[in-house]
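Re-run with default settings, no changes from the original entry. Doing this only to confirm the output is reproducible before filing.
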Amino acid sequence: MSGFGRLKPVHASREKRRAPRRQTNVPGIIQTTASQFEVTISDVSATGVRVVSRYTPPSRQDVRLYVNGLWLFGRIAWRRGAAFGIKFDEALNSHSPA
């Protein structure tokens, strides 16, 4: 995961995430059962990503994310404006190309 972004400082007192996040600006493709659309991945961790897009799928919808030649499977965890989070079905490991 070292090539995906840079480590984002996190303040433990207000942060609930368990995995460190890396800021990035990587294009990707989201695929749902009904559509496919381009996104920009703004941060990534071993357990999920934050993406920005013109289209925001409904919360809890299953999705596939195509990034760096790899399909990752997950579910929409939250939505805020043009941004939403995807929680991966399986955590990435340090050997993952993403």
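DSSP finds no helices and seven strands in the chain. The mean pLDDT is 83.
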